[in-house]
From TrEMBL:
WD repeat ranges per the UniProt record: 2-43
Main location: membrane
Keywords: Cytoplasm, Cytoplasmic vesicle, ER-Golgi transport, Golgi apparatus, Membrane, Protein transport, Repeat, Transport, WD repeat
Species this protein is from: Gossypium lobatum
Known partners and oligomeric status: Oligomeric complex that consists of at least the alpha, beta, beta', gamma, delta, epsilon and zeta subunits.
Protein name from the UniProt record: Coatomer WD associated region domain-containing protein
Annotated membrane topology: Peripheral membrane protein
Known role: The coatomer is a cytosolic protein complex that binds to dilysine motifs and reversibly associates with Golgi non-clathrin-coated vesicles, which further mediate biosynthetic protein transport from the ER, via the Golgi up to the trans Golgi network. Coatomer complex is required for budding from Golgi membranes, and is essential for the retrograde Golgi-to-ER transport of dilysine-tagged proteins.
Family: Belongs to the WD repeat COPB2 family.
GO biological process assignments: endoplasmic reticulum to Golgi vesicle-mediated transport; intra-Golgi vesicle-mediated transport; intracellular protein transport; retrograde vesicle-mediated transport, Golgi to endoplasmic reticulum
Length: 652
């Protein structure tokens, strides 16, 4: 008989998977009972008046409750699988009261399994458990397995699943030597020997809400944790921090404390503690001051974690699998669903995880890579370089990224095998020759452009020219050639620009060379006829009539009236001011247009750039002005490296 409701029971639900019975009543409460012991586990009251319906679904831990005034969905228990793996790769898990086992090493070497792929494991039935397991854990040597739940614990042999010991416990933890402790209440903890004999009872002066095993026995309340030695339960250190979980390294000198929003890596100074205790000095309520040293703090919440050497591997709330070495966090993999760490097999260099459906997955993590990073963080580069050859080439890029993050860019350049990454590092270091070799092999326009820009910024114009040729960056080539006064280069660039359809660059090249007829022809071919007419009026008056004829013909197709309004100097010379003078001046300066004086004389004549040839003709000084002006806007051959400003002076 289940007694507890104060009014009529209106709904009952036997959960299809969990060992619970759920009852709803007109008293407004939902009560959850253990299906085996019939003990009341929990009472829910959401103040929505009477309960009329309960529902559950196989494969889900959610239940729905129907009230007078609404519905509620609640999640019962947790989805973390009750499982444990020993150092040899044997996994034991609990599916309700049934205990099953698999062996990772049963997957033959002839079967290739990729990272994150479900392992094809053969499940074997190991036995049953007399209680409903809430936690399951191997002891350090893997001989025994403890199952804890329903306020009790049972220790079984790992192979035959025989009962070796049992007792009352809310929590159970192992020591590194095979001793263990149980928390029977918030004020009573018992410690047992390896022979399952009770050694001592500890009654903490505070409410012990959790206990953690490892090198030291740890008890924590809501806002602090206390560490004790296993032998005599002497206070070692109190640390004021909210603790969710605790992970000890196998070396026994490092510990990770997982909090609400961060985790902390601490170093345990065993020698300092032992020396303090041997001195006979009294330990106060705070413990030994130098017992722990904070090494690193990381703002991430840890779901599950394990240690591999000095490397802490963990999964976070974003379901990323990370590892932390020397405070440096590296993301190994992005998990596509919630997974929980089982352990690490050094023989396979793989870390194993399990999901709520008891699927086991493995991910590669090289021990040599961890050792290398650890030595680099410690500053022991000589030993680190000895380990580097043992790291497979496919992991060298990861090593290089780690070195770059430490500011060791030159070392990263030597290690990485990725051409793109090597190029970026070479650019950072300003090693242009190395970057040039990579760009030559890759034949990437973007790489050539980056290298060319860096070469220009460092004054290496010859390399910049070569790079921009490969990058086909015509605008920058124009800048380089004009800066060098390279007439032949500009001439080649003009031809290349026309081939590439870069008419703006081609026009500038021709204009700087004084090839005005070619400029007009380019404008006409580009259908920029009005611009061609204006240019002809300014620089080549003899071509105006020809261009106007072309303009009229083109415009006549769109607007005949506008086409007729265009004035032709051959038909109406009076409409063009100083027209005959302009034609005479053009004839006299044409022969000097291909003369490229040295750029060294530019400053002597820069103040004459505002003069017009028509004014000079009227003043009788045309020959002198023409000679001076063509010093200003002409170029010599590349061998003499001269510069000009182009033919910019107008006729009027």
């Amino acid at each position: 008989t289940l007694e507890g409701h104060t009014h009529n029971v209106s709904a009952v639900c036997f959960h299809p998977e969990l060992p619970i019975i759920i009852t709803g009543s007109e008293d407004g409460t939902v009560r959850i009972w253990h299906a085996t012991t019939y003990r009341l586990e929990n009472t829910l009251n959401y103040s929505l008046e009477r309960v009329w319906a309960l529902g559950s679904m196989k494969g889900s831990r959610r239940i729905v409750i129907g009230y007078d005034e609404g519905t509620i969905m609640v999640k019962i228990g947790r989805e973390v699988p009750v499982s444990s793996m020993d150092d040899s790769g044997k996994i034991i898990w609990a599916k309700h009261n049934e205990i099953q086992t698999v062996n990772i090493k049963s997957v033959g070497t002839n079967i290739e399994v990729t990272d994150g792929e479900r392992l094809p494991l053969t499940v074997k039935e190991l036995g049953t458990c007399d209680l409903y397991p809430q936690s399951l854990k191997h002891n350090p040597n893997g001989r025994f397995v403890v199952v804890c739940g329903d306020g009790e614990y049972i220790i079984y042999t790992a192979l035959a699943w025989r009962n070796r010991s049992f007792g009352s416990a809310l929590e159970f933890i192992w020591s590194p030597d095979g001793e263990y402790a149980v928390r029977e209440s918030t004020s009573k903890i018992k410690i047992f020997s390896k022979n399952f004999q009770e050694n001592r009872i500890v009654r903490p002066t505070f409410s012990a809400e959790h206990i953690f095993g490892g090198t030291l026995l740890a008890m924590c309340s809501s806002d602090f944790i206390c560490f004790y030695d296993w032998a005599e339960c002497r206070m070692i250190r109190r640390i004021d921090v909210t603790v969710k979980n605790l992970y000890w390294a196998d070396s026994a000198d490092m510990v990770a404390i997982a909090g609400d929003t961060s985790f902390y890596i601490l170093k345990y100074n065993r020698d300092v503690v032992q020396s303090y205790l041997n001195s006979g000095r009294q330990v106060d309520e705070q413990g030994v001051e130098d017992a722990f040293e904070l090494l690193h703090e990381t703002n991430e919440r840890v779901r599950t974690g394990i240690w591999v050497g000095d490397c802490f591997i963990y999964s976070n709330t974003s379901w990323r699998l990370n590892y932390c070495v020397g405070g440096e966090v590296t993301t190994m993999f992005h998990l596509d669903r919630p997974m929980y760490l089982l352990g690490y097999l050094a023989s396979q260099s793989r870390v194993y995880l399990i999901d709520k459906e008891f699927n086991v997955m493995g991910y590669t993590l090289l021990l040599s890579l961890i050792e290398y990073k650890t030595l680099v963080m410690q500053g022991d580069l000589e030993r680190a370089n000895e380990i580097l050859p043992s790291i497979p080439k496919e992991h060298h890029n990861s090593v290089a990224q780690f070195l770059e993050s430490r500011g060791m860019i030159e070392d990263a350049l030597e290690v990485t095998t990725d051409p793109d990454y090597r190029f970026d590092l070479a650019m950072q270091l300003g090693k242009l020759e190395i970057a040039k070799e990579i760009a030559t092999e890759a034949q990437s326009e973007s790489k050539w452009k980056q290298l060319g820009e860096l070469a220009m910024s460092t004054g290496k114009l010859a390399m910049a020219e070569e790079c921009m040729k490969h990058a086909v960056d015509l605008s920058v080539l124009l800048l380089i050639y004009s800066s060098l006064g390279d007439a032949e280069g500009i001439s080649r660039l003009a031809s290349l620009s026309k081939e590439q359809g870069k008419n703006n660059v081609a026009f500038l090249c021709l204009f700087m060379l004084g090839k005005l007829e070619d400029c007009l022809q380019l404008l006409v071919e580009s259908n920029r006829i009005p611009e061609a007419a204006l240019m002809a009026r300014s620089y080549l008056p003899s071509k105006v009539s020809e261009i106007v004829t072309i303009w009229r013909k083109d415009l006549n197709r769109v607007n005949p009236r506008a086409a007729e309004s265009l004035a032709n100097p051959q038909e109406n010379p009076g409409m063009f001011e100083n027209w005959k003078v302009a034609l005479d001046v053009e004839t006299r300066v044409r022969e000097k247009r291909g003369v490229y004086p040295p750029a060294a004389v530019y400053l002597k004549h820069a103040d004459r750039s505002w003069l017009t040839l028509v004014e000079a003709h009227e003043n009788g000084d045309l020959n002198h002005v023409v000679y001076n002006l063509y010093y200003l806007f002409s170029l010599k051959p590349a061998a003499q490296k001269n510069i000009g400003t182009g033919c910019r002076t107008k006729w009027r």
